[in-house]
Amino acid sequence: MGGWRHMAAEALEEQYSPSRWSPRLDPDAVIQAHLAATAAGTQRARASAQTSLHVPYGAGEREKLDIYFPAERSGTFPVLVYIHGGYWQCLSKDESGFAALPLVSQGVAVVAVGYDTAPKGHMDAMVLQVRRSLAFLVQQYSGIRGIFLCGHSAGAHLAAMVLSTDWTEYGVVPDIKGAVLVSGVYDLEPILHTYVNDALSMSREVAQRNSPMLCISPAVPAATGCEVLVAVAQHDSPEFRRQSQEYGQALRAAGWSVSLLDLAGVDHFDIIEKLSEESYVLTQVILNMISRA
Predict the structure, then answer these.
(1) For residues 59 and 97, is the Cβ–Cβ distance under 8 A?
(2) Cβ contact 246:1 at 8 Å
(3) How far apart, in whole angstroms, are the C-alpha atoms of residue 62 and residue 123?
(4) In this predicted model, what pLDDT tens digit does every residue of 175-201 receive, in sequence order?
(5) Is the pLDDT of residue 74 over 70?
(6) From residue 181, how far is each of 6, 102, 131, 157, 178 by CA, in Å?
(7) Which of 108, 111, 146, 169 has its CA 20 to 30 A from that of 180?
(8) Would you list the DSSP string of the chain?
């Protein structure tokens, strides 16, 4: 796991700057396009789907959920919980509903989770907020038939931390049947040595206790029924690709049911933006995972 330790500082910065690796657009343009695509997709979903917006799961200003309900809501339904990226310091749930329409049309509810981003939010608190949001969902909505996590980039890190949760202190055990981790970071230590930590101000101890790679628990019987998909883009950086591969391998070694999906022709941003399209391969993979569970 130590190859990054031998990189020059500038090279490490580049590895953890996803916008520098897109062949479509220059770094600033690809970020602006991502913000525009996710915001527009969310607006479309809010205009078309049945929603409950800004549902508080805690007292904090950002501790809110947006819920997109299935078109046909009778009885129970599976839920996809989407955790946004933004390097733990930007984006919000208000740009996180773009994947809803293809899913709600197939009977799946979508929940976009809000959490405190840096510098207001710190890493320990973000992880706890996402865990609490799931406990709240289970307690408030008796119609949930299985939870499927989906996180992108920093959100994939937070979703992976959910998989290591000891739920005894929460009073509920969410029925997590699947997790789709897209272009994530699973070992935070390299981040300490990049610009990303300027806002996060993580110590080495904070990075270690919040690194999914270091928190993998052996798969208990409940976890063996949870299917984990680790997805990475062809045009993610070599470090992002390494992190996905090594985390997937470590989960598998601990007995988890894991598959790795290497998506051709996409970068760190459109790998997730395209979830607004029903025909997109990752959309279909998610729908297939939910239908199998």
Answers:
(1) no
(2) yes
(3) 15
(4) 999 999 999 999 999 999 999 999 999
(5) yes
(6) 27, 19, 16, 8, 10
(7) 169
(8) --GGGGS-HHHHHHHT-GGGG-SSS-HHHHHHHHHHHHHHHHHHHHHHSEEEEEEESSSSTT-EEEEEE-SS--S-EEEEEEE--STTTS--GGG--TTHHHHHTTT-EEEEEP---TTTS-HHHHHHHHHHHHHHHHHH-TTEEEEEEEEETHHHHHHHHHHT--GGGGT----EEEEEEES-----GGGGGSTTHHHH---HHHHHHT-GGG-PPP--HHHHT-EEEEEEEEES-HHHHHHHHHHHHHHHHTT-EEEEEEEEEEETTHHHHGGGSTTSHHHHHHHHHHHH-
- Which residues are catalytically annotated? 153, 236, 268
Which residue, chain included where needed, has tokens 């994530």? 184
**All residues at 6 or more sequence positions from 232 whose CB lies less than 8 Å from its CB, including other chains:** 182, 183, 240, 241, 244, 245, 260, 261, 262, 263, 271
> Of 83, 76, 266, which is closest to residue 163 (Cα–Cα)?
83
Residue type (1 letter), 109: A
Backbone angles phi, psi at 178, to 5 degrees: -165, 160
Strands 257-267 and 227-235: parallel
